[in-house]
Amino acid sequence: MTDDKYKEIRPYSDEESVAALKRIAAHPVLSQIAAFLFPGQDPVLFRSMIANLQGVDDFQSNVMAVVINKILKDTSGKLTFSGVEKLDKDRKYLYISNHRDIMLDSAIMQVILFEAGLGTSEMAVGDNLITDPLLEDIARINKMIKVIRNTNSREIYNSSVLLSEYIRHRLEDQISSVWIAQRNGRTKDGIDFTEQGLLKMLDMSGKGDFVKDFNELAIVPVSISYEYEPCDILKAKELYISRRQKYVKSEGEDLNSVLTGIMQYKGNIHFNFCDPVTMEELQKCSEFEKNEKFKALGEIIDKRIISTFRHWNTNYIAYDMLTNGDKFKDNYSLEEFNKFREYVDFKLSGTEDDRAETREILLAMYANPIITREKLEL
After folding, report:
1. Are residues 84 and 195 in the same domain?
2. Which domain holds residue 353?
3. Distance between CA atoms of 341 and 320, rounded to whole angstroms?
4. CATH number reported for the structural domain that contains residue 114 in this entry
5. In the sheet where 269-273 sits, what is the strand order?
């Protein structure tokens, strides 16, 4: 099987990347990027370095690793991760994670995978984020798989088949691991769940044996938790509007969310790589009727993610503020409580919506990971 049929969606090859890097090096915006990454340095040096990179790995190690580590240094507390020791460095995996930030979920994971010696993965990203040729060049050099969304239903179906085939090809042939979010779009309310549509898409390229087909994908659920939810007030405003009418994104909204997620302070961040889904678990799923099979598999992934999602003091405080109680008072100090309360008040200060309702939405966003786990344990 060749990559030719996947040309429009797959990441760039090294040869294609070299040509794209020269286009990036010549782009006017590179001076601004250089000023952000290397303040005080002549941007010509950065242009020269970009133009002379020799492919994907070169770009990821010399540019993207620098970019993500600078973002983490400037806008977060401590990054921690767990579970990677259980993974086989010689095997390729399908990482399915909850989705909280448009860019950072997958980008930070690449830094972790690289540091753990597992090799970076390819990343499935919606084409709504590829708004111009420069972004497409940067994304596809950085191992982005383009997920077609903005088209008619027939073309979406055909592109889903192609995407499914491509992901299976990369994993079955042990070429590259792949990351994909558990749902279409970020979690806005703090409740993480796996869409059956995702699992059905992955099944499109199978040969009809549920257990064998999904076992070949080597699914590893990944839980991602931020102390301060990226774009929290933007998500709260969207949920507020959605309670009243169909929410329609404004022009440039996705790009604004990307930039906000990058620049906003995120506090501590934790990634947990869960146990891979086993053949025995898949066998149990296969005993159900067709749609129930996918539901059962989704529940396995969800349980992994929900049970290992790290709760921060912000989650515990939000729960107690939302319920007007003190159930989790032993998990935070009075100083931390007052700090988060002030943070919430600050976030609400610029809203024109009903403040009490927006406050409830915002607090629920932080409290729901705890509520969801409590339901799971029951």
Report:
1. yes
2. 313-377
3. 11
4. 3.40.1130.10
5. 79-82, 269-273, 219-226, 94-97, 178-181, 122-126, 144-147
Residue range 7-30: mean pLDDT, rounded: 93
In a domain, residue 288? The reply is yes
Specify whether the CB–CB gap between 194 and 182 falls below 8 A: yes
Evaluate whether residue 318 is within a structural domain. yes
Look at residue 67 and tell me if it is in a domain: no
For residues 157 and 132, state if they share a domain.
yes
CA pair distance 249, 227, nearest whole angstrom: 26
User: Does 207 score more than 90 pLDDT?
Assistant: yes
CA–CA dist 111, 120 (Å, integer): 8
- Residue 173 structure tokens: 């042939």
301 and 325 in a single domain? The answer is no
Instruction: Record the tokens describing residue 256, joined without a space.
Output: 């604004």
The pLDDT tens digits for 45-60 are 999 999 999 999 999 9
β-bridge partners, 273: 222
Q: Are residues 299 and 327 in the same domain?
A: no
DSSP code at position 84: G
- Pairing type for strands 144-147 and 269-273 reads unpaired
Residue 171 resides in a domain: yes
pLDDT at 349 over 60: yes
What predicted TM-score, i.e. pTM, was given to this entire model? Answer: 0.94
Number of domains, the chain: 2
Give the containing element (helix H, strand E) for 80.
strand 79-82
Contact criterion met (CB below 8 Å) for 317 and 336: yes
- Extract the tokens encoding 295: 């539901």
Query: Degrees (nearest 5) of the Cα angle 179, 102, 338?
Result: 120
Asked if 128 and 166 sit in the same domain, the reply is: yes
351 shares a domain with 213? no
Helix or strand holding residue 233 (H, E): helix 232-242
List own/partner pairs for 239-246 with CB under 8 A and 24 or more apart. 239/188, 239/189, 239/361, 240/353, 240/354, 240/357, 240/358, 240/361, 241/353
Instruction: Kindly tell me if the per-residue pLDDT of 1 is higher than 70.
Output: no
Q: How far apart are CA 360 and CA 344, in angstroms?
A: 10
pLDDT at residue 65 is higher than 60:
yes
In whole angstroms, how far apart are CA 284 and each of 236, 244, 281, 294, 300? 38, 41, 5, 11, 11
Mean pLDDT estimate for the chain: 93
